[in-house]
Amino acid sequence: MKKIFTLLTLFIVANVFGQSKAESEILSLSKEKFRWQVEAKVDSLANLFDNNVAIIQASGAIKSKKEYLDDVKNGTPVFNSIEIKEASARIFGKTAIVIGKGLFTITKDATEVTYNVMYSEVYVLQNKKWKLVSRHSSHI
């Protein structure tokens, strides 16, 4: 009886608190995307973004892929650091949603500012690769 209880407990814990392989993959990809922003790796970001991606910034501005990549390329703003405090992922077939919170330190107009940000990202599996199709962030 103890063995059954132990196995059942492990099964429940693994399913409630564990991440699937796809969820772990998406969280790693999202984290990598933030690193690319800080390092201004425009080509890496371009490969991740769907051509029709919509990026809604905390300021309320809505950016297309080209507009956002131009901003990263031109350093408007400069992403000094992005520290993710928490993030979770959910998979729905070929769609993944990431929800997270973090500290974003940027320099804009020669002024460095740190924001507490909450964000959501939507990824779609296309030709065996995850593509970012939507990102929304807001100040906390």
From TrEMBL:
<dbReference type="InterPro" id="IPR027843">
    <property type="entry name" value="DUF4440"/>
</dbReference>
<dbReference type="Pfam" id="PF14534">
    <property type="entry name" value="DUF4440"/>
</dbReference>
<dbReference type="InterPro" id="IPR032710">
    <property type="entry name" value="NTF2-like_dom_sf"/>
</dbReference>
<feature type="domain" description="DUF4440">
    <location>
        <begin position="26"/>
        <end position="132"/>
    </location>
</feature>
<protein>
    <submittedName>
        <fullName>Nuclear transport factor 2 family protein</fullName>
    </submittedName>
</protein>
